[in-house]
Amino acid sequence: MKTIIEVKNLVKNYKSKRAVDGLSFDVMEGEILGLLGPNGSGKTTTMNCILALLKFDEGKIKIFGKEMAPDAYDIKSKIGVVFQDVAVFDELTVQGNIDYFCGLYIQDKNTRAEYVEDALKLVGLEENKTQYPKQLSGGLLRRLNIACGIAHKPKLIFLDEPTVAVDPQSRNNILEGIKKLRDDGATIIYTTHYMEEVEILCDRVIILDKGKIIASGTNDELKSLAKIEEKVTVEIPEMNPKQIGALEQIKNVSAVSYENGVLKLVYNRGKNNLADMIKYLDDNKIQYNKIFAERPTLNDVFLELTGKELRD
């Protein structure tokens, strides 16, 4: 696989604060790389340095094998950026907005018209192309924002939380569109606050904290870092403190909670935990309804590594 982005020993200081601390990583052609971290971890600074929107103090950045610089327009023409804040022109229609942004890179009118139609189809706005931004819902507006950023068919795309505060239909549409962009050959850097999106989309994940990489790998590789082995949830109408205390003594159980008729147990290791749990309930004649077990999630790993919620 070809290396699309090379970041080597990147350092960025804001006066006495080091925002990015010796960061090194590569992004390979055709992959979706999830860039995660709590606020202040260095995600935005890193992206802005890669895009040559910020000067950095040390290190090297190459894109498509060439050194990135503010005036590297040949490189920038192959990049699409969709920032979290929607940036479109209110006085232009949906089609007019996409055409304008596409026209910054594509001069041929026939080619541009074709690209605009492709972008409309990708985000599902064909029926809205004559509308103005103020006539769109929040979800449709975010779809328009994405279309404007990718209409020129860039080889490298930066997506900064593209599904924030959108309805489920728009969210699914956006996620499907991102998959299609990857399938069509684009390389994508993706940031989000929604861990389930990372598990659905990303081929590889980098977790940043305090300007450093604290973990990287595939979803499965990161989940293997979790200290917990399994989580079991049981609906139990009634439990007394003695029963809960007995559960805390079961082998491999690291945490027990009971609230609003729901019992939750966390196991740090072991096999047949669910079977052992059911046997305990049956032996002690404890009535229960639904019961299920789940493996550690990416969110569990994130919390263990950073000690912070993603929205912290």
Task: Write down the overall mean pLDDT.
Answer: 92
Helix and strand succession?
EEEHEEHEHHHEHEHEEHEHEEHEH
Helix count, DSSP H or I runs of 4 or more residues: 11
Number of domains: 2
Radius of gyration: 24 Å
Shape verdict: globular
The profile of the biggest β sheet is:
6 strands, mixed
Which fold name corresponds to the CATH topology of the largest domain? Rossmann fold
Distance between the termini: 36 Å
Total DSSP E strands: 14
Helical proportion, percent range:
25-40%
Q: Low-confidence parts, pLDDT < 50 over ≥5 residues?
A: none
Estimate what percentage of residues fall within beta strands.
Answer: 25-35%
**Class of secondary structure makeup:** alpha/beta
The CATH class of the largest domain:
Alpha Beta
> CATH superfamily assignment of the largest domain?
P-loop containing nucleotide triphosphate hydrolases
CATH-defined architecture of the largest domain: 3-Layer(aba) Sandwich
Q: Order of strands across the biggest sheet?
A: 6-7-8-3-9-10
